[in-house]
Structures are given as C-alpha cells and as structure tokens.
Amino acid sequence: MNSPKSQDNISKSEKKSKIIIIGAGAHAKYIIDILEEMNCFEIIGCCASDPSPSGEVCGYPFLGDFKTLSELFQTGVRLAAIGIGGWTDNHLREKIFNMAKDMGFKLVNPIHPRAIVASNARIGEGSSIGAGAVVNTEASIGKNVIIGADALIGHETEIHDHVLVSGSVKVGAQLVVKKRALLAFGATIVSRVNIGREALVGAGSVVIKDVADRTRVFGVAATQRD
Questions:
Q1: Are residues 100 and 120 in the same domain?
Q2: Is residue 3 a part of any domain in this protein?
Q3: Residue from 83, 74, 93, 95 nearest 45 by CA
Q4: What is the DSSP-derived secondary structure letter of residue 108?
Q5: How big is the CA angle at 206 (ends 201 and 212), to the nearest 5 degrees?
Q6: Would you say 85 is a known binding-site residue?
Q7: Which pTM value belongs to this model?
Q8: Three-state DSSP class for residue 129
Q9: CB atoms within 10 A of CB 73
Q10: Which of the listed residues 76, 107, 138 is the one where a domain comes to its end?
Q11: Which residues are catalytic?
Q12: CATH number of the domain bearing residue 144
C-alpha cells in the first residue's frame, strides 16, 4: 500500500488530479486502498453524513458533510469516488451517486491493478473493481457497481446500475443482473440465469434458475425465502 504521508508520494501528488472520497466507513477504506494502489490521484479527504470518530480515514482527513462536498466542488475539485457500500440496500449508494453527479462531479472508476478486465468489456461511471476480480470479454458493467475482490464476471454478461457483487462471487456467462441487486459473498450464478431487480442472493448460494424482482434466495440450490 502506498502511504499518503511518504515524501515520494507527496512530491508526485502535486501533478495528480485531486479527488474526494464520499463516505467514511469500511467501504471508503476499501476504495482508498484501491486508489492508492492505482497511484493516479491525490486523495484530499473524505466527506460523509456521519463523521469519522477519529477525524480521519486511513490517514486522510474527514472534511465534513455533503455541504462541504459542494464547497469543495466550488474550489475546483472535480473528481470523486463513492466510498459507500450496499450490503443491506443499494438505494443509498444510488442516491449519493446521483447527488454527486448533480453537483457536477465526475465519478472515477477505482480498479485495482491486480484486477483483470477484458479490453472490450464496458465499465460504467463510478464502478469499482477489487483485487483479483476478473471481468471477461464483452461483459457490460453499469454505473456505480461494486465488483468485489476475487469476483468473476462471465463473458457477455450484463450487470446493471447500482448492483453489489460481493467478494468471491462467481457470475456466469450470458446473463443479466438487474438494477440494485445484491449478490452476497461467495454466491455462484450459473450461466444464462438472470437475477431480478433488487433481488438478494445469500452468501454461498448457488443459483441455477432465474430469480424474480425483489426476491430473496438462499442455499444450494438457492430457493426463495421471505
């Protein structure tokens, strides 16, 4: 991990574009780690609705709430990264994404250098890809999607906007995961099986048939639960 306090990093950061992290919790730390590994941006700090108890996040200052975010844009900061997860609900991350866009920010793609992304895969604005993840040929990743560490996205698969694909999830080929779906840690979706809008696939589940909108499925093979 590159240290934000190292002299080499400080001297190089003068030539980098400034970026603000939106969020101050665990996922913000995850995004900071990816951005440090990319070594392309000068992280100036974090903004969130809830303050960091220590006043900093991974050594970067907590700068304030979303009013501060707007003020930073007025000073010339134009880049932001979404540091808000979505395990229980992706609506908040979507709301924050839209708020940042309305302010005028460009949302960057934090993609870990150890991720593998096919040259003809499409990655939407603000989406992040963790270490060890693989996005295969002609896959399409929407806006504000989280692809966790060691996840696999099969060829010609579509992941729609604001989806969470947790770490070690395996998503097969030629399928669709619709908007705001949640795929929990270690789940497997076999090829040509579609996941509905706002559906939840539980951790470790194996999905072998289509999952309807707003449905929760768990187990091997995955079955619906209320």
A1: no
A2: no
A3: 83
A4: P
A5: 45
A6: yes
A7: 0.91
A8: strand
A9: 16
A10: 107
A11: 155
A12: 2.160.10.10
